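=== RUN LOG ===
request id: a7f3
mode: sequence -> structure
chains: 1
length: 488
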Amino acid sequence: MKVNRHFSLTFVFGFPAVIAAMLLSLIAKNHFDSVEKDISNEFQRIEEVFKRTTKIVTALDYSFSNYYKSGNPLFLDHNKQVVDGLCQIWPIDSLLLAEGKTTDIPSVDIDYMLVGEESLCTETSSTYKSASEKIALAPILSFLSQLDEYHDGVHFIDKRGYVISSPEDFAKGLGKELLSTIKSRPYWQKTANNPDLLTLSGPAYRFDSLDHMISMTIPVFHKGEHQGMLSVDIDAGKLLAIANEHLAGRIDIIDTTLTSPRDSAAFYHKIELEGVASHHAMYYELNLIDEARHFFVYEKDSLIVAIIVYLFSVTIFFYVNSNIERGYFKDLAAKDPMTGLLNRRGLEAFWRSVEHDQLFALTVFDIDDFKSINDTFGHDKGDDVIRYMSRQISNSIRSSDVAARFGGEEFVVYLKGDDRETLIRTLQRVKSAVCSKSEDIIPNGFTVSGGVCIVETEQSKLNFEEIFKYADEKLYVAKTTGKDRIEF
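=== RESULT ===
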């Protein structure tokens, strides 16, 4: 019986490590794909905010370009005051309700303020007249500023120097100096240079706080005459705040004409919006340490599975190794090391494992004058004779038959057959196969003798020792009556 080689320790630990590495690679790839998808979703969310903003700015532009109510003293419904040389005007009622409607229907919470030079509060001034033409649209600014959670304010900056703003906090923070220089600021210049487009500006600090703002602006024209600028402010901090907890880094937006991406920038994405003048791009700021920490936190279940697979595989290989080695040593204990045939222990184990339910023969073969062969040709040649005989016996019997060496020059053969004559012919053939070519091993060759016990089915309850003893007695008869024969 051939003994399979057991797995080496390198294989036992290495092969599961390869499998675990493949699993880890798959987990890492899936995690990377998930991160990439989440980043793509964040980019899409940001662009959707910009697209919604363009619609609001466009709607406001249409309203301001086409709707004026000249000479209507709407300021009668507003409060007005002069603070630090600036006129501030805001609505008396905080709830907007159409004329003739009752309070049973929903109203709109309005929050806006006009701020301009002191002349804005003078009803005879041209500034007052201009503002009165546009004040009817101020509630629309207030309403639209509340539509999107990312919008921080909607403003109309008139060329005459006054501002309509919602919410009013922005207007309250405007100073006289800032108001006088507003037309010289970069976002006003950029907007003026793109009369047919919306303009995206920022991120930049808001003048009255440390909040970052991104502005979507458009110039307003009426009958071909420039009236001012509409602006919707987007809270950059809120917009860029990542809601997805699986992302460890942060997203940033830059104006590529002013700023370059950081060295840690990844997934660079240029912002392209229809009808919008923009030189902006956004990217994901990658921090490898934070990404690794997130990977282990959010993929811990998969990593635990990979570790379990590795440990389980190593355990299985150790178990297989143990079984193979146990079988090897068991087989080794049942085999004759010189010939590879069963030894006495192996044959007895075989005897106990089979059903003796048909005619069989147990034969004991012995090499004649083996001591003389050893004395004449040496023990090495004697070993060659033993190995030769084991080969000839093995080649002359069926795979279902069994041959064993009981030590020295004694061999035992177990055969099954349908009748006595077949068993006798087979054993004679075995003897002939051994003797006929024995001259190839030593000069003049050698002979063998044998004793056979043929057991009928009804005698199969006899134990091995009894049958072997009977066959051995027959061998003795063959040895003492001329040798080179089989005694049945």
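=== NOTES ===
Residues 69-73 have pLDDT under 50 and may be disordered.
Residues 9-66 form the longest helix (58 residues).
=== END ===
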